[in-house]
Write a structure and sequence with these properties.
It is built from eleven helices and 15 strands. The protein is of the alpha/beta class and about 325 residues long. It has one domain: NAD(P)-binding Rossmann-like Domain (Rossmann fold), CATH 3.40.50.720. The longest helix has 21 residues. Pfam families: Epimerase (PF01370).
Length: about 325
Amino acid sequence: MRVLVTGGSSLLARRTAEQLLARGDDITLLQRHAVAFDVAQVLGDVRDKAVVDRAVGSCDAVIHCAAKVGVVGSWSEYRSINVGGTENVVDAARRHGISRVVHVSTPSVAHEGTALVGVGATAAATGRRGAFYAESKALAEQLVCAVNSEVLPIVTIRPHLVWGPGDTQLVGRIVERARAGRLALVGDGCALIDSTYIDNAASALVAALDAAVPGARCNGRAYVIANGEPRPVAELIAGICHAAGVDVAPRHVPRPIALAVGSVIERAWAMLHIGAEPPLTRFLAEQLGTAHWFDPRPARDDLGWVPTVSVDDGLIELAAWFDSRSGRRST
């Protein structure tokens, strides 16, 4: 199969492309800058319709990973990339008769600040002021759901807290803050959260690609992907820090205070146009201070997907990666 993977410079897109290549698929990457990867690459922005059209036209199927993540940026940036870029991809897919699309979303589209315990992929919700990433991804998910058809099957995958070797988002920020003595936990750190090792997230996208055939139950639906191993947030953070060889001494911030401080920081960052990631936002406080773990059965039943790398094994792989970069000897 000829597969276009957008956002090719991201860890998830790259690992997905590697898995597709390993089984013999023909891969094209779409991203803004060239990467050291021996596959066809189309350089450009998903907001550029002509670039997207050229990339999509050479393939049979699309895995759409490209997105603006994090919390720094204007609403117009998030909307143009995450919503406008997605619209360009599905419009090009329809014009070129693409056989299927896998759209990468996030569980945060359905997380409105309350605990999520053993739930499935509930409907994407909009109307959250300030949470630009979650809001824009919710709008994008609604868009692809409306476009899904027997002619163009679209499956949405919501990987939850993806981490692993090379991750600059979750792992990178935790380790950086621990090294700087700025690591904080919301509440007592006992909130149960699930996460997804990178290889499992990538294999879920591949499974969705294979499952999205005309008439399949998965078409037009969203699936939350995670390891299925809820851990206290403090335990997961400690495991990541241990793998990196850094001390864990987090400060505990009561949830009400974290929510209030996060709201103030959000407003200050927006007014001052600070380019760095803020230390805390209200949305982040909600995510770290409430339980959120999910029912793995829908993805198993409809996509035939199960995770193959456990959290503990993933932490061993992460430690080996840090060892290889630092030259320190594993213990």
